[in-house]
Structures are given as structure tokens and as C-alpha cells.
Amino acid sequence: MGVEEEYLLVTPEGRPTAVAPTVLWHAAQEDSAEPTSPDEPGGDLEKEFKREQVETSTHPRTDLGELLDEIRAGRERTSAFARLAGAEIAALGTAPQEVESTVVPDKRAQEIRARFAMTAKDQLTCGCHVHVEVADDEEGVVILDHLRRWTPVLLALSANSPAWQGGHSGYASYRSQVWGRWPTAGPTAPFGDAAGYHRVIEELLATETILDDGMVYFDARLSARYPTVEVRVADVCLDAADAALQAALVRGLAETAVRGDSDLPQPRAELLRAATWRAAHSGLSGNLVRPTTGTPAPAADVVAELVRHVGKALADAGDLEWVQRHVATVLRRGNGAIQQQAWRAEGADDDEVVRRAIARTTAPH
């Protein structure tokens, strides 16, 4: 499994700043001095759609503790390069301030900006993507069809974007609402098998609505780059350990799917879309839609149901105790959205929220 994280680039005072090219230049100097193996994916610092953000990734890991260590190291490394450009990084799903973001000087990105207009203009959002290795596309689709009902719970755990363009959005994850404007974003119907999955992609491309298969923005998809399932529903997490929790739960879902440990009926995509909206709206602060019944229940109960669902897989991987302990921590202190709102209650303004997020992004524990 591996984790990709997107971070906001901000000034030390807490304002978004368009310095991604400079940050990436500094990273490239180190990489040229100490080249890594091209055969091993991950570990890179890469551009994103906007110049006010960058993306980092881990190497593939089997041990959860090693993955968490690398997530933290990646944040520290990215922070160091940002400081060389006079900036800091903040693991926030959206910037709280009103900001005019800028598209990177890349031909494909500029074409997306021109074609998708306001949707592209507003896309200064930061997510967390989890990859889990699969044997082949058939196994990957088994996993996709199994975990789709649980993606709203993953979103609720990660929700970290309550503010938008200088105001409170009324959502725990407004990033997911902005991201959902893309034509392929969001939950999907079951694919059935690999042929069914690839047929959907071919039909989407045939509409000429999206540029290429890199614009398949499903909440969970087969990766176009790696032999993995990529779960893309989460906000970037304020705390590094919360990102590791996402990875552990996704791997648990994948293993549970491959074992055939569940025969629950598939929810319709319309119901899954409603459950995803509800998770984005209330996060961990209210009710979620229970994936097994389609009825509302307190968020803590639904999260506990997810942990029970993947409990055997977590135990076999040696992750169960850590996941149970960290889930209890998240439910006690709240996800990023709850923490941001607590800072607001203490009197923090937009810039102060970002400054506190800077400190939390690279906190050692």
C-alpha cells in the first residue's frame, strides 16, 4: 500500500502562495544529486494542478508503522523544500481565505483550464489517495465493487475542509463538493468485472467530455500508472497518522473483498451519492448513512461497523490494535474539520487557522 498527499503552499503568515515551480526545482536538485531507482514507484515530489499546491507520495509498504514513518518523512521533506522557496506546507483540504489560484504552466493543465472553465478555476483542493496492490484488473474490480459502499465513511474520517473562499461552507468536507463538479467525479455503480470497468472508461472517452483516462476521477478506480486500486475519496488529513489510518482501512477492505468475506447486496449509485453527500456535510459530527442498511446512525457507530467489517483482515496484517486505538483517538479529538472549528471557537482567524495547520502538518506525533 502507498499514500499520496496534496498540500497547500502558504506563506509563513498563512496565505496561499504560487511557488510550486520553485519548490519543485529545489526538490529536483536534490534528486539529481541522489537519484532513486526508477523501478520503485513513490517517494517523489510532484506538481499538481495549481501552483499553490504540491503532491508527495510514499513508496509501497506492507508494514503500517513504516508507512506512517514515511508519510511523516515526506511531509518534513516537502516542508524543507517549501521553506527554500520562502513558503510552508499546510495539510488542509481547502484554503480558508478568498484566493485566486493559478494553473501550472503545463499544456495539459492549461487545456483543462480552458475547457472546464469555473470548475477548473475553483480547483485549489487537496486530497489523500490510497493505493493498494492488486494481482490484476479482475481482482481490482472485485475490490472496487466491494469497498464502494464504505467510501463515505472514509470521507467522514478524513474531512478537513470546512472553509471556502473566506467563509464557513457549512460542510465538514467542502473539498469533496468542489471536486464533485468534474464530470467523472464521485461514487460509481458496480462494474462487475474488468471488462465492464474498461468498457465504462472507453465509453467515457468516446463522449469526448474528458481529455484522457487521467481525468477518470472516480472515488475509487484502477490506477492508470500502477497495478493498484486507488481510493481517492479522502481529504488530505491534518494529522499524518490519520492518513495511515486511511491506508490501513483501505487495505483491510481490499483483503476482505478478495477473501469474499461479505455478501452484502450492492447499493444503487443514487443512494451511495446521498451517503457521500451526508458524510461530506456532517463528517463525524452527526449521523452517517449505515452502509449495511442504508439508514442513519451516529458517526461513531458507523465507523465502528467499518472496523468490525475489516477486523479479521486487520488482525491478520497486525494492524487491528493500532487501528482500534487510533480510531478512538480520531473520534475523541475529531477529524481536521472539527479541529479547525475548535480553533475558530478559540478566536483564530483564517490566517491563524493556517498557521496552526502548518504546525500540525509536520508534528512528529
UniProtKB/TrEMBL annotation:
Listed GO MF terms: ATP binding; glutamate-cysteine ligase activity
Organism of derivation: Cellulomonas rhizosphaerae
Comp. bias (Basic and acidic residues): 44-63
Similarity comment text for this entry: Belongs to the glutamate--cysteine ligase type 2 family. YbdK subfamily.
UniProt GO BP: modified amino acid biosynthetic process
Swiss-Prot/TrEMBL keywords: ATP-binding, Ligase, Nucleotide-binding
UniProt cross-references to InterPro entries, sorted A to Z: GCL_type2/YbdK_subfam (IPR050141), GCS2 (IPR006336), Gln_synth/guanido_kin_cat_dom (IPR014746), YbdK (IPR011793)
Name of the featured protein: Putative glutamate--cysteine ligase 2
Region described as Disordered: 18-63
Pfam (any one): GCS2
Catalyzed reactions per annotation: L-cysteine + L-glutamate + ATP = gamma-L-glutamyl-L-cysteine + ADP + phosphate + H(+)
Function: ATP-dependent carboxylate-amine ligase which exhibits weak glutamate--cysteine ligase activity.
EC number: 6.3.2.2
